[in-house]
């Protein structure tokens, strides 16, 4: 799909758009934001009040004390009480502003992180395949933070706005000439903020995009740590990360230079105003137009206004980054591709029947630069021909050839309670077919039916309740064995042990230091590949699925353990319909029917013995696999395999293998 990053700059303006975004957040937390704004107003207005108290104290305490040579202590005490009350009110305002304002920010960030995460989970697998994990992490973290960062200083800025109005009125009442200085300074401040927002927005937009790229490279390097270390690619990965990090550094420095110019100017404006007030005020005192107390009041007002003006600077300075972050988050929340669900449910119990009618699926064109911050609704390549998962059923552009189907008009039926094996060479479409059976993706043509119901017509959650998929690479969470098997399911320990027993995992789990409570480490690093696969299988079995799909799920276990697992599945096939994607002869031979795929098409169907006799391509596939595995040492020579296997794990019971499997030992292969 040809994707295009939306351009906020085309909209009415960064500042207007930024405040519109903030208003949406304020409407979510109106009461707390109102408390924060009251605190901000109280804080700033007490500043104005302190200028009045200082002016009066100058006229009534300081000047008389200078003239008389001693102070009136009753007047001093009164001034101290007044200043203390103003200080307490100012502290209360600061407390309310920071507490309520911080709560608003953290609630908004948490709410949007949850929304982004929920959207990630709703979007189909095909959408995730087009976006890097690092970019998605950046959307949920730094983009969300940037989207709501200006909310924190906003109550202070609103209080400063109230203070500004009151201060300007007080300036006019005190001395209209000095007030003119304020009427020059404050509009200049507004003009500078508008100029800054327009200049810095594209710089922050680029920086946020680069943050996602840096996260993507870091995540990929850490996730592939085994490959990096075994191949000695540490320096290359460091260099690859350094390139992205330096680009981000340069972008942030470019934006920082502009802000480095903006912030000092914002700091200088109020101080420039104070200097002008003192110069003009001295002239006005000499002319007898004002007294010293009034000049102190005006100068202190400008001093107080310096800090609130910084609050305006914080808000306006963060608005460009806020607009970028908000749009990147909203682009994820608006992303097309969420699956459509119907109203139907599966009411039957026991194993489910499965049927595929002319199912066709092709992966969308890859886009290495795909970014979630895409307005897919405005993309002309997405039209009414798009499938429910949001993937285009037409080429991304008229000149591009249509993508080759990885599953091409596949049709077959699996009776309830039977075992079907799917085999084929690498790239034949087996794993893509598994994704279709679990509705991780939807076909562009044809239907996948469970108990005669199209998967797209089922209500949300129905497919996951009826279908369990065990992948070749079992993913384990950094949690206990029990938690990895149940994954939040309310299952008793007896049920967990029963599932582990069926997956031939109860022996090694019982030998772990804490049994079911043993922590397995991130991705199950404390377990072997075969142990992780058996935990993954137990995770599926404990749910008693009506359709169990094994995608080469026993490839990492030794042949004897695999035979015991598959024999158990065969014996209990009446509990679930089983679809096995496999290459091993021993696995395939357990099936009631074998489906042979090649280039996404079904080129053979029947029992294992029948296909061996009638399909040279099928026979060549199995013998080639075993020959390659034996040459690599993964399988023993036929003459010694049986004795070697018997000696490998003498504690395990001999599995009950069906008669037709015993007849198909490797030495009997054609």
Automatic annotation (TrEMBL):
Q: Where is the composition biased (Basic and acidic residues)?
A: 640-649, 657-670
Name this protein carries in UniProt? ABC-type multidrug transport system, ATPase and permease component
The record's section on PROSITE patterns has: ABC_TM1F, ABC_TRANSPORTER_1, ABC_TRANSPORTER_2
What superkingdom does the record give? Bacteria
Q: Name one GO molecular function term.
A: ATP binding
Q: SUPFAM superfamilies this protein is in?
A: ABC transporter transmembrane region (SSF90123), P-loop containing nucleoside triphosphate hydrolases (SSF52540)
Name the family the entry cites.
Belongs to the ABC transporter superfamily. Lipid exporter (TC 3.A.1.106) family.
Q: How does it sit in the membrane?
A: Multi-pass membrane protein
Species this protein is from: Frankia torreyi
Q: Chief localization class?
A: membrane
Transmembrane ranges, per UniProt, are 32-54, 75-96, 147-170, 177-196, 268-286, 298-317
Sorted UniProt keywords: ATP-binding, Cell membrane, Membrane, Nucleotide-binding, Transmembrane, Transmembrane helix, Transport
Stretch list, region Disordered: 369-403, 640-670
The segment(s) forming the ABC transporter domain are: 354-624
Keyword Transmembrane listed: yes
Q: Where is the ABC transmembrane type-1 domain?
A: 34-321
Q: InterPro entries per the record?
A: AAA+_ATPase, ABC1_TM_dom, ABC1_TM_sf, ABC_transporter-like_ATP-bd, ABC_transporter-like_CS, P-loop_NTPase, Type_1_exporter
Q: Where in the cell is it found?
A: Cell membrane
Q: Where is the composition biased (Low complexity)?
A: 369-397
